[in-house]
Structures are given as structure tokens and as C-alpha cells.
Amino acid sequence: MTEDLLQLTPSGLYCPAGDFYIDPWLPVARAIITHAHADHARPGSRRYLTTPTGAPLLARRVGDAVVQTLPFGERLTINDVTISFHPAGHLLGSAQVRLERRGEAWVVSGDYKLECERTCEPFEPVRCHVFITESTFGLPIYRWPPQAEVFAEIERWWRTNQENGLTSVLYAYALGKAQRLLAGIDASLGPILVHGAVLPFIQLYRSAGVELPKVFHADEMNARLHRGRALVIAPPSAGHMPGWLRKFGPCSQAFASGWMTIRGARRRRAVDRGFVLSDHADWAGLLEAIRATGAERIGVTHGYASQMARFLQEDGWRAEVIPTRFTGEALEEMDAVVDGTVE
After folding, report:
1. Which domains does the chain have, with CATH numbers?
2. Strands 47-50 and 30-32
3. CA-to-CA distance for 5 and 3, rounded, in angstroms?
4. What is the pLDDT of residues 57-79, one digit of tens each?
5. Which of these, 6, 31, 99, 302, could form a disulfide with 134 (CB 3.0-4.6 Å)?
């Protein structure tokens, strides 16, 4: 997209009429942020605008920068562009950004999921003329099972490991996925340990009113104390640290991600089990969200953008690819490094 309300620039999506960027890739004067994952919230900008529940997460990402907030559904006019945030359902505080100028409305989705769960505000479809959607899992093969079934699978795996004297190590992104797992798992099954990258986000979620079970830091003492019984939640990067894993004794490793849909993904991750649980919309969810907007034009970014745009075009939509510098969940794996948690 090279004209209209938003333009693609070397720094990312730019609104000339409002003189601001949405999820910019480089430092800018004014950044509007959909959510606090590393591929959407880059440090170095002068001022940031996000939702109240997303602000503490964003502040941890960007340090001492000015972070201002706008509650969901309220409107703010910058120059002659009116901005509002609407829940995206991706993680706590995640938002779709609606822009309106001279009767034309655009919505930038950020990342989103339609499945409701209690660690974040539920997705809200927003009517618009132009919708810019993510497509991290924009292929028909990606269709999520009910989350209740997935949590039941995780709990069976955990119990079986306990019976065999194995510590259960479950890899999940430190921000969003880890908290969703904690909220959904049956904590009465045994002690739950978390990697240092996960700990600060747990406190921020609790401060926002999200109920999460008691956890222990996965340090040397707790690892030895709860060997063979514990569920350990850690970012994927921890799996590349043999010294960190060794303290848990014999263990079974698993990964919770939408990527576990693909045969061979578990093998490439070198884990014993893969659980299909994603904080992004699956194929059906993407199409449902796009249709609900009533949009005349669709911009597709992140993930399988070209494949999704081609499908939409063949189905009669005005669709085009919007290139991105980053690649969704692949960069979320950097969260442990960005947050400085090396154990």
C-alpha cells in the first residue's frame, strides 16, 4: 500500500495525515502499538500509545520511553485522524487499531485470535473499509482443536511423566502463551515451575486482575526439590541450554504452539510431544474475522501473506500483500533474550 490513510515506509506503516506509525520497525517520534511482542513493539521511539492493560507490558519492552494509554473503545483525534483501540484477543492488552478520516475507516489488526480465554480481552470484530490482517497461520492446514482438549492432553502427559519419574518441561513463549497455559492447566496435579523470563510477566498479569496459580522460580533449589513431579514452563530458547535442563534430572520435553500442526515440527524442535495451542487465529478464524469487517480492501501481512492474499483475490476480494520486516512467532522466541533472562 503506497497511498491513502496508511503508507508503507522503511520504518513501517505510517499515517501521514496523523503523523504517526503503527508498530514501527525503527525508532520514530510517535508510535501506536498493537501489543508488546518483540515484532510489534520495538524500543527507541520517543512516544508510544497503547491500551491501559498493555502499557505495563510495553513499558518493560521499551524502558524509559513515554508510554501513553487510550482505553478500548475511546477515541483520540490526532490532527484530523480519529484513533480507537479494539480488543484483538492475542494477549493481555492487545488491540486492533481503527483509524478514521473523512468518513473512511481503516483497521490494523495486529495479531489476533478469536477463541476466548481468561488471560486477555476477547476479540471484537470491527467494521471498516480497509482491513489489514495478520496471516501467521494463513494456510488451510492450520485448524485448531478445542483448547479444552489440548489442556486435557497436556495434563495426561504431565501425569504420565510423574508416574515415570520424569520432570515435564513445556516450552511456550514467555509473554502471552505462558500465562494462558498457567490459567488453563489443573494446578492441583503438582508443583509448577517457571523460567526467569516468565516470572515478571506473571506479576504484571496478576496486577491486571488475571488469576494465575502459585508458581515457583525454576532455579537450582526448586528444580532439585520438585524433580520428577513438576511442570516447568519455559521459553523455547531455554531448550538450547543443556546446563539449564540438567538440573531437572530425567525429563520429558514438549512444545505448545500452532506450529505443532505440521508433521516434522516436533522433530525439528527436538521435543517428545507437541501440543497445538496458538494465540493467533487459524485459517477459519482469519477468514471469519476478515468477513466480519465488511471491508472492501484487505491488506495481508506476516506469515503466509502471499498465499492468503492469493486465496482472497481468487474469492473476489481486493487483497494485497503488505511486506513486513519481522516474522511473527519466530521473533517472539527472542523474548527471553530481550528481557535479559539468562539462567
Report:
1. 7-141+279-338 (3.60.15.10), 147-275 (3.40.50.10710)
2. parallel
3. 7
4. 999 999 889 999 999 999 999 99
5. 302
Q: Distance from first CA to last CA of the chain, Å, rounded? A: 44
Can you read off the three cell numbers belonging to residue 158?
504431565
* Distance (Å, whole) CA 192 – CA 182: 9
The whole-number pLDDT of residue 241 equals 85
- Phi then psi for 205, rounded to 5 degrees? -65, -45
Please report, as a single letter, which amino acid is at residue 157. W
Half-sphere exposure of 331 (CA within 13 A, CB side): 16
- All three cell numbers of 218, joined, read 525454576
- pLDDT at position 327 is 57
User: Is residue 168 helix, strand or coil?
Assistant: strand
Nearest residue to 231 (alpha-carbon basis) of 195, 180, 266? 195
DSSP structural state of residue 123: P
Residue 333 CA to residue 325 CA, distance in Å, equals: 16
Q: What CA–CA distances, in Å, run from 241 to 244, 270, 332?
A: 5, 13, 18
Give the model confidence (pLDDT) of 245-303 as tens digits. Answer: 999 999 999 999 999 998 776 666 779 999 999 999 999 999 999 999 999 999 999 99
- Beta carbons within 8 Å of 197's beta carbon, 6+ residues apart: 174, 234, 235, 237, 238, 335, 336, 339, 341
Q: Which set of grid coordinates corresponds to residue 217?
A: 522460580
95-102: long-range contacts (C-beta < 8 A, 24 or more apart)?
95/34, 95/35, 95/50, 95/51, 95/54, 96/34, 96/124, 96/126, 97/22, 97/32, 97/34, 98/126, 98/128, 99/5, 99/6, 99/15, 99/18, 101/5, 101/17, 101/18
Beta bridge partners of 216: 193
**Cα–Cα–Cα angle for 167, 173, 174, rounded to 5 degrees:** 85
The Cα-based distances of 205 to 4, 54, 164, 337 in angstroms read 37, 10, 33, 20
